[in-house]
Amino acid sequence: MAETRKWTPKDDDVNEDEEEEDSQQYSNQKDAILFAIDVSTTMLAPQELDDGDEGKRKGSTPASAVLTALRCAYGVLQSRIISNPNDMMGILLFGTEATKFDTGGGGGGGVGGGYEHCYLLLDLDIPDAEGIKGLKNLIEDPEEFEPLLKPAKEQVSMANVFFAVNQIFTTKAANFQSRRLFIVTDEDDPHSTDKALKNSSVTRARDLYDLGVRIDPFFIYNPAKGGFDSSKFYDDIVYRSPTDEEDDYHAAVSGKMRLRQMVSSIKSKSTPKRALFTNKLELGPGLIIGVKGYLLFKRQEKARSHYVYTGGEKAQIVKGVTTWLAEETAKVADKTEIRKAYKFGGEQILFTPEEMKAMRDFGEPVIRIIGFKPASAVRFDMNVKPANFIYPDETGYIGSTRVFAALHAKLVKDGKVGIAWCISRKNAAPQIVAILPSVEELGDDGVQIIPPGFFLVHLPFADDVRQNPETKLVRAPASLIDRMRAVVKQLHMPKGYIPDKYSNPSLQWHYRILQAIALDEDMPAQPVDTTLPKYKLIDRHAGTYCREWGSELEKLAGNLAIPAARTSASAAKRSTLVKGEGMPRKRVKAEDGGGEGDEVMAAWRGGGVGRLTVAKLKAWLGGKGLDTDGKKVDLVARVEGALGG
Amino acid sequence: MADKQATVYVIDLGPTLSRVHPSRGECDLDYALTYIWDKITATMSTGRKTDVIGVVGFRTENTDNAMATADGYENICVLAPISQFLLDHLRDLKRALVPSRGKGKGGDGFSAICIAVDMIMRYCRKLKYIRNIVLVTDGRGEWDDEGCEDIVGQIQEEGINLTALGVDFDDEEYGFVEEGKVPKKARNEKVIKKMVEACNEGGQELGIFGTLAEAISELGKPRLKKIRPKRLRPLSPSTSSDILALLSRNPSVRAPILPKLRGWDPVNARAYQIEDGTTAGGMMDIEKEQMEKGYNYGRTIVPISATDEAITVLETEPGLRIIGFVPVEKYRRYFSMSTTNAIVGAKDNLKASMALSSLIHALFELESLIDVQVPFSEDVRHYRFPPLDKVKTVSGKVLEKHRFLPTPHVEKLMSDYVDKMDLMVANEDEGEPEYATVDETFSPILHRINQIVRWRAVHPDEPLPLAHDILTKYSYPPKTLLGVSTNALQKLIEASDVKRVDPKLAGRKRGREQPAPKSGLDVEALLTSAAPSVPKKAKISSANPIPDFKNKLRTTEDLSDLKEAGKEMLAVLKELIKYSLADANYGRVCEILKVMREEYIEYDEPGIYNIVLQRLKEAIVSEELDGDRMECWDGIRYNRLGLITKGESERVEVDDAAARRFLWG
Question: Could you tell me the keywords of this UniProt record (chain B) (predicted)?
Fold first, then answer.
């Protein structure tokens, strides 16, 4: 709450940069997840990690449901540190002999005690190094695990568990957009003999519903009971609205949840579903349905770095405070005194806030289909940013889903796409989008990987397209193309590109290092990079073909060198260079840049890099493989940086 | 960098230009200036120092030019020497551009062109410039074509583009002929046309002659900035991929940035602070030298030294490496996350080009290779959605018929409609039958802002102009398609039977519906039967206020109970604030207010909320809740929990201004 905030009401804002706003919206909606894990004899019994594959290959020992759930929570914790660094997470064990319940925050008359057999393993909060380390030790070290995870002799009161959850969310995650409780249990009827306890559990569960806490149960198959019957207890606990889009019948209905499925199910639920916008989809004049838009693909970046003050007891983030000063008088300006202007003809052109709004006003938000084209009309090169996903929404227009489904079926069947004028939100810039149908795809474990619906692909405007580069076309002869075809055929990926197989190596590495420093672990030696091509495999499949292609190219290139020599001297020089391998090429390059290098060095020693021409600076930077863009000051800074650092 | 350019506008300011054409309602000069201002401001908006402008007026009252002493150069004024045009120039020019009153005889048009040619020659010398002269006239003045060939010769020698536009000039191609044209104007038109066309002799296309109306009608058409492809980065010499260069293909063009300003130029100053534990809410200033860099790992702050920082960056070599190939039909087009780059062989490297060509032809019959970013696993949000072609009930049954599923009839009608709305044959103009191609569509915001900024520069006191039609052309389906698809659409609308929910009712509790768990259990009945003796009107507890509050509202129809609930909640709120350690409970306060606000709107009793909020504010302002609690009020502001206004509920009289005053006052 103490963070500094802008006090301008949002609807008065003029949307300057949409992308920025997208991410802004996400960061403002905070999310809290609490894992509640049932600790009982059956939950602690070792179980085979089903479907064998992974478990057996790694030669791991069978794990109990509790341990698997904790590992899963740990995995979610780690991935959320990267993806949702401001979100909270906590772990509550219930049914333990030990009791520990001292959630911080206090105030408001928190009831002490009364939470027997509830053990708050990780208090609901943004995870810190200490908590993460504790959890890690618990998972890895049986000596820590066993004494703590002792089941109680009596049945824990679920009403108490729910009230404990209530208190945790109320005090620690007040005013959060999303609060979810993940219950992992194999007990389908905890209060079979005590009607009063069951009833008060039902009431406490409804309190949670009133608080906006969503319960996601993960039921574990209990062999002793021969299954899991959610109708005995949990169907009275869990609330779902009829229009609830989340598809969780899978877990609740089958009543038998295998551990691995639980893991992937929890993972896929760990990001709360949030709509980016609610909008109208107009199929034609007079035919309007409601839709909600989501962002399913978004570049995950490293969290930004901060200035840190380490002089105190604990490291603290330093806050940068910007104040605007009048240039001449150095008087501090109030934010309301600052207005925005456009630069024009050496001066600034001012507009009233109303005019600023009016000039961006192209009407109410709408996705208006103006017609249809074959899917091939949305060419591969016509792309500017990640696509948004839309799904029907019945709240504003009853019947939206069936119309949406009819359009979806038609476009899938005929391989067509809709073309639409799209204003995604109030004040958003109009875009032309292609409406692409996606077909539902399930992973091997039955969990959805591609949802059915439409993707809105933003098409570039004429203003966005750059000229094609000028190149000399050298058409490869058929012999070379055929050899390349053989290579391509060998390196075919039958399943297509599957994002889940490729982690972002630089992001993972960054956080791996941070984790090592934060948890005081050994530095990892080698980054794991799943994006690298599998060279051994490629060599086995396509090595021969690659080499054939290579020698054919050499043969053909020999004939190319002569015309090249005629066109220009420098080209001839280079095309002969290509024949050489690695080293000579580099050497020649260094010689090329040599003359400038000397001059630049000399200028640098004399402190006069700024006196060199832009061309010289660029040549030098280019020779070093550095960026040659920008104004002269940038270039000079870069050269000085390269020489000085 | 774009080429340097010099343009001289030669503008007829004769008294005849004050004529107001009945169908246009403005004088001919103002009409001509529509064109001139648009051109000049378009140049100005580039902000380039190397795109320069000069202005010559002829048939002016005075004489002011380099050859003023020579015969035949009277009544010609250089209104602006060639230079980068700034707003001051524009203001000066605006004052100067009025039709002259006197019936001065001089001001020969060709002489004025001569002056313009002279200006360009002096300014550009032999440097590389694009040279332009733009002439606007009504053709009613003096046009003495004696010695015209010399001017033409000079224009050709200098390579100057000459554009001559006339008010109501005849133009067969455009389809305009002025009725009752005076003989003098007819003669002048011929002479000017002849001269302009003479410039085109000798192989150079320099002259353009036309009627002003045509030029003005084309002004709305967005001008495209030619953007040369940007070379991204030379690839590493150590890999085989040094044969490639990457070029970015469509970077999104953005509207110009808005600098901040108010009368004076603001500069910003940054200060660095940390929270100071010794004083409540206090901040301590930190010197820049005392700071290190660091990252958050969860809640933990990880300070990182410069050497450690280097380790956190994964070492990579630039280059493209092929992982494998995916059939086109298996590529999910919506995976594309970025702008696209074209990959071509390095310049003058024929071998590389050939190697690349073999790959391209093995994949597609195209001429360049395009790359685009696809998501990593971290970039994917796994939201799940139910299927669209079947409905599963809570009990797991699969339904083929459901109100969420279209009937075969609706599917058939949808199919007919989609087929009729085919954009591939919708373009009425000649050439490409495809409608709304990339090169026909222009960024509405970009060109709209551009238009308005330029308009405001010339017309500081007038309201904003309308947007050009081209910018909204693609906001509706083409008329041709609407015509042929009307029937199909009407049938589809009837069959699909979509009903709009009244937005006023959408939020209201429909018949005080009780929420039920999945089993459909009536929790209320269960409670009453289990403990009939417990009185319903239990007090709202501060440990569980929100559920208690909701429960209280659910179980009553009485206005007095609703009011009582508000009172009890106010007490809870005050207690929370009073015993809050610093800001510890403020989040809960906001959450409670949010719930109350929603509920009282839904129960149609917004007045109760407004009273509670007023009482709470009084308590905060009077500092009776253990000191200064204004930070809590800040939170209420931030969460927009002000008074319920009449826009939100008809049952209150609070307007937006009053609500603002209350929240911010």
Answer: ATP-binding, Chromosome, DNA damage, DNA recombination, DNA repair, DNA-binding, Helicase, Hydrolase, Nucleotide-binding, Nucleus, Telomere
